[in-house]
Amino acid sequence: MKETKTNYKILLCTCIINVFMALSLNNFVSSDVFLPALFLYFISNFMTFFEKSYNYKFIASKYEKYVSYTCCIVCGGISCLYTAHALQMVEIVFFKVEDNYRILLQGMPNTFFSFKSVDITGIIIICILFVPLASVLLCIIPFLHEQGFSKQDIENILKKHKCILVESIGIAGVAGGGGVIYCYIKSVNEHSIYGVPQYWKYFTVCFIVIFLFSLFIIIKRYKRGI
């Protein structure tokens, strides 16, 4: 099979879109709005990563395969969960705890397949944030591979230039702070009555994405010093 050159512009656009989609899922007013948006987010990414998994059997490193396979499982799992909800096999509801809303999974009442409510808020949040993180990795890994970097090369650079990690964390921290400021401004302007601003979500997404990109740029800058 002929190997084609990776289109990094498309990978970068996909990464940016996934970041904004993940952040937009924080803007919901009811389960009737949030759940369909959540399903579209995961089913579209499932098809994307499924296609990547097939192609990466031929042209990619094992790290890209692992990331793609993991994303297929994550996105497919949430998509199946929503499908079960749509078919009324299970029920996904919102439950208010103090100033926050929790996402609960529970069996349908008066049915054979019934169980107590399970709080899946943390699982949903982790899955939502995992997709943009995976998109960043699938953008950086093939580029480093095509540039001739090996795992040993990167380890040598980090050992010789420990300040790289400090610089990357500093840049990512500033980006995370920017995400917090954006979240605050948005909450003030919209006067949302549905819970409190989720500052940590914005900080986490911005921090991780910018950390990986800044680390990649700085490593490339020190390439000649391997």
Short description:
Helix content is 70%, strand content 8%. It has seven helices and three strands. Strand 1 and strand 2 (100-107) form a beta hairpin.
Walk me through the topology.
Elements: H1 8-24, H2 31-59, H3 62-86, E1 90-97, E2 100-107, E3 118-119, H4 121-146, H5 151-160, H6 163-190, H7 199-221
Antiparallel strand pairs: 1-2, 2-3
Helix pairs in contact: 1-4, 2-3, 3-4, 4-7, 6-7
Transmembrane segments: 7-28, 34-54, 66-87, 120-144, 164-187, 199-219
Keywords: Membrane, Transmembrane, Transmembrane helix
Shape: globular
- End-to-end distance, in Å? 33 Å
| Low-confidence residue ranges | none
From the alpha-carbon coordinates, what is the Rg to the nearest angstrom? 20 Å
Strand sequence of the main sheet, in spatial order? 1-2-3
Mean pLDDT: 77
Secondary structure tally: strands: 3
Percentage beta strand: 5-15%
Determine the oligomeric state from the structure: single chain
Helix/strand structural class: mainly alpha
Query: How many domains would you count in the coordinates?
Result: 2
Number of helices: 7
What portion of residues is helical?
Answer: 55-70%
Helices and strands, in N-to-C order? HHHEEEHHHH
**Sheet of most strands:** 3 strands, antiparallel
List key phrases describing it.
single chain; mainly alpha; 2 domains; transmembrane; transmembrane helix; globular; 226 residues; three-stranded antiparallel β-sheet; membrane; 70% helix
Provide a descriptive summary of the structure in words.
23% of the residues are buried. The protein starts with 7 loop residues before the first helix and ends in a 5-residue tail after the last helix. Helix 3 runs antiparallel to helix 4 (121-146). 70% of the residues lie in helices and 8% in strands. The mean pLDDT is 77. It folds into two domains: 1-146; 148-226, no CATH class. It has a three-stranded antiparallel sheet. Strand 1 and strand 2 form a beta hairpin. With 226 residues, it is mainly alpha-helical. The protein is built from seven helices and three strands; from the N terminus they run αααβββαααα. The chain crosses the membrane at residues 7-28, 34-54, 66-87, 120-144, 164-187, 199-219. Keywords: Membrane, Transmembrane, Transmembrane helix.
